Amino acid sequence: MHLFLDAEQREFQRHIARWVDERLAPQADALDRSGEFPRELFRELGGLGYYGVLYPEAYGGSGLERPYVYYMILCEELARGSLGFAAIVGMHASAATHAIYSWGSEALRQRYLVPAIRGELVGALAITEPNAGSDAAAIRTRAVKVEGGYRLTGNKIFTSNGTIADFVNVAATTDPAKRLKGIGLFLVDAKTPGFKVSRRLEKFTTHCSDAAELSFDEVFVPDECRLGAEEGSFLNAYKALTVDRIHTAALALGVGRAAYDAALQYAKDREQFGQPIGKFQAVQFKLVDMLAKLEQARLYTYYAASLADEGRPITQEAALAKIIAADGANEVCQKALNIFGGYGLMNEFPVQRYLRDSYFPMVGGGTSDIMRLIVARQLGL
């Protein structure tokens, strides 16, 4: 990794890694068991300034020159401790807040972005619907223009941070016939009448990161809470989600690192037939293959982040980074559990959590097959 990181970035990495080791990792198993939102940890990390990595100092951010590489470091280290917690932060500190910073008014920035960067508010982004997943153009949530604003009606599903959010940026269509071009983005305060968390969805992965089904029943959204143009603003947000794919790749890299480190240490400590199991070639080869996967993912993910910092198009690179890192980390976690043998199936060892959590980056932000479709289109196929 030092191939990409300068002295300041390495210092940043040391600071967040220390916080992860001292504050997050010791609580990770308990958070996984309880499935509860770690509000105290969330606010603590916000108070340390980490949610401002992508934003200028005027809003309480860090004002960094190469923010995406720094954000990769943050995502990777957090996921090394708890991918569930890292997923909460990833949604909040990037996707949810980016729309407000990029397309919100100054008043909205002061009301929502600034406290969100401090960790005082939690944000979410609601796009997916029961019948509109990868096909975002099929969104049915309607935004009907009324005096002074809009009335939103519809349902969203799989919304990360949905049950804990103070505000949700909602994709809704003003004209279904226009498909993607008719979709706008609207900020909904969670206290608004008509907004409801229908249910929290139970999943086998990233337990402390919630996934919610949301309903909007004639929810009034003032004109000033429209993010961007009435129609087509979702296309800008959709393009911005390209960068989030490298964030997701960094999450995968982090959980893969955690699994590899645990398996390597176990291979040195566990003895069978009179010697550590790491002395057996079968185990050695697994560990070497795991390391190769991680180094491949690390090189490409940080390469894509560097391109993003240079302002270059990364549609293909971001999709490839997500494929390489997410699929690779899942394979690493499977091999790690195999090295642990029977103990790997026991909840007292975190390797089973690493494997469960490794499925999240393979689906979140677009499945691996959707990423392959994006790359195929970039190739002119």
Task: Explain what the structure shows.
It is a single chain. The protein is of the alpha+beta class. The protein has 3 domains: 7-122, Butyryl-Coa Dehydrogenase, subunit A, domain 1 (Orthogonal Bundle); 124-231, Butyryl-CoA Dehydrogenase, subunit A, domain 2; 235-378, Up-down Bundle (Butyryl-CoA Dehydrogenase, subunit A, domain 3). Helix 5 runs antiparallel to helix 7 and helix 7 (233-269) runs parallel beside helix 9. The radius of gyration is 21 Å and the shape is globular. It has a 4-stranded antiparallel beta sheet with strand order 2-3-7-6, with helices on one face. Strands 1-4-5 form a 3-stranded mixed beta sheet, with helices on one face. The chain has helices at 7-24, 28-34, 39-47, 67-81, 83-103, 106-117, 233-269, 281-309, 315-340, 351-357, 360-363, 368-378, and strands at 123-126, 142-146, 149-160, 167-173, 183-189, 195-200, 211-222, 271-272, 275-276. A hairpin with a 2-residue loop joins strand 2 (142-146) and strand 3. The two termini are 34 Å apart. The longest helix is centred in the middle third of the chain and has 37 residues, at 233-269.
